[in-house]
Fold this sequence. Notes:
The structure holds two protein chains of two kinds.
Chain A: E1 13-14, E2 19-20, H1 26-44, H2 46-58, E3 66-68, H3 70-76, E4 80-85, H4 95-108, E5 113-118, H5 122-134, E6 137-143, H6 144-149, H7 151-159, E7 163-167, H8 174-188, E8 192-195, H9 205-213, H10 215-228, E9 234-238, H11 243-249, E10 258-266, H12 277-280, E11 282-286, E12 289-293, H13 318-325, E13 330-335, H14 336-350, H15 356-362, H16 365-370, E14 375-380, H17 388-397
Parallel strand pairs in A: 4-14, 5-6, 5-8, 6-7, 9-10, 9-14, 10-13
Antiparallel strand pairs in A: 1-2, 3-4, 11-12
Helix pairs in contact in A: 2-4, 4-5, 4-9, 5-7, 9-11, 10-11, 14-15
Chain B: E1 5-9, H1 18-27, E2 32-36, H2 47-58, H3 63-70, E3 78-83, H4 85-91, H5 93-100, E4 105-110, H6 119-127, E5 135-136, H7 142-151, E6 166-169, H8 183-194, E7 201-204, H9 210-218, E8 222-225, H10 227-234, H11 239-242
Parallel strand pairs in B: 1-2, 1-8, 2-3, 3-4, 5-6, 6-7, 7-8
Amino acid sequence: MTVPPAEFVLPTRFGRAAFGGCYAPETLMTPLLELEAAFRAAQADPDFGVALARELREFAGRATPLTPAPQLARATGLQALYLKREDLAHTGAHKINNALGQALLARRMGKTEIIAETGAGQHGVATAAACARLGLVCTVYMGATDMARQAPNVARMKLLGANVIPVTAGQGTLRAAVNEAMRAWAARCDRAHYILGSALGPHPFPTIVRSFQRVIGDEARRQVLAAHGTLPEAIVACAGGGSNALGLLVPFAEDNLRRMAVEAGGHGRELGEHAARLDGGRTGVLHGCKTLLLQDSHGYTAGTASISAGLDYPALGPELAALAVDGRVEVWRASDEEAFAAAQQLCALEGILPALESSHALAALPRLAREGVRVVLLGLSGRGDKDIASYERALKSGGAA
Amino acid sequence: MKPVLPFIMAGSPSLERLPALLAEAAALDLEAIEVGLPHSDPIADGPVLQAAAQRAIARGVTPVQVLECLARCPSSPSVILFSYFNPLLQLGTGRLIALLRPTPVRSLLIVDLPHGEEAEFERELRAAGYPLVPLLAPTTSLDRAMRLLQERPDPGPSVPFAQRFAYVVARLGVTGAAGAPDLGLVRDRLAALRKITGRPLTVGFGLADAVSLESVRAMGAVPVVGSAVVAALYEGKSLRAALHAE
């Protein structure tokens, strides 16, 4: 590895709020500088682009289809609805796009080990699969609470050869898993690369993740123009950290249409009852970046709640938060109950079982229709097999699990 | 007392005990002591300091309470306030400086704030007499170390040790890692750093036993003892016992 530049070259901040940055311990600064240099070199290398495109096509099954959903459109009061089917990507969610990109980058950097965090387990499964394919050792940190509620994904990661380490600290969710993954990376950064799965963390992670995920929106743009003839009036995606939302929305950033991200409204409006960062969060620093953060008045990170492990995180990714603050993306919330209802509706009307995360985006459709929107493109970020146990409980209780 | 820089977590075992601990440190003739503000997401800390911070937060200890408590510690060595950035960001620079004024705090070690990320904050703190401590990790090249030492310069021998030293991280990973660091590597690292700086150096991360402390002193640096001290204090030991001073 050549000596990394002394400073970052790419922009480290986003929007008027200057969210983002690199609030990292000194031990990680040189690895982060090296990572940015390797990412820039890879982006400039046509061979890397060819190799990634081939993996996305031959292994991940891209391009994912765009599926018209006429029954759901009618039921929610829309004229037309198109679903971008990331649930049909290999391993069942959009996470594979970034996992493959970063795994190829890690191999290029001469790293032999991969560290990852996971919430719902989708990023963990995607990373485990990418590592198995590329011959990299994989360790995934996952909150103990999330391991219980996303058990099928834990089994999948283990089958794919990953070492899954339970994290019992805090609430045992994504936030605790990121803490532990960052500690593990600091201990093994000489040989390991950390594949962060959300568009958050210290620079250059938010930029790298967004860059590997924008394939979603690039494809969707071509597909929706081919299928509908014009752009939709609104594009909607769910948002945990923001990798799926940015990946879908960024290629439409300059278009005259509504860009929507839907957060987890959980089961209440009080701090600790949801993961809605836009109207509940204040500017703060967590996990290496400055962004909108759910926190108490002392600067301690607040607890969160959501039926969806993938959205159950106290900070909005810095670029998405900046776009929201600058009015370029609208951020809504959907409750646990609304997400469940929307999932059942998609199953019944279109024959598609969505992930609980994606169901939050679906829950926004009736409101968009009420506001006069007629044509919507929706990012169906993942499939719902992992959430079967939660759906069963909801069916039995007739509402939220 | 031989040179050593202890780290204690404010609020562990209890905030009420902080004044007595600082008085004991002063009685031991320690030049400085690191006092940690508890944080909810201590990404650079190992299990002992995580647990100590969690206990403090669970007992309701807040950054303001810690700073107000420090203001009531008349007998204390110079305090190096250890913190993550977010609690300080939430206080705001003006309020933070006002709260620091009546305390024995002489510098801040903000583990997740590289120089330049919050230039205005760092400038205002320095101007008010609270410089930030430069950290040098095993991953920090000598070129980079030279730059970090210039960005957070040594004001010279007229100011207290707490405002002069650079913190050398002895190993990759987090605080309190099991097993002593490779002291041969630490020796080589200190020798290389000595060629680029004359300021006092401390060495920390994983130092616990008396032999390691003595080895670091023999290398001309001050050993930092954190997790071992926090664990010993939690077990009810005195600071003197925790530092192998008996």
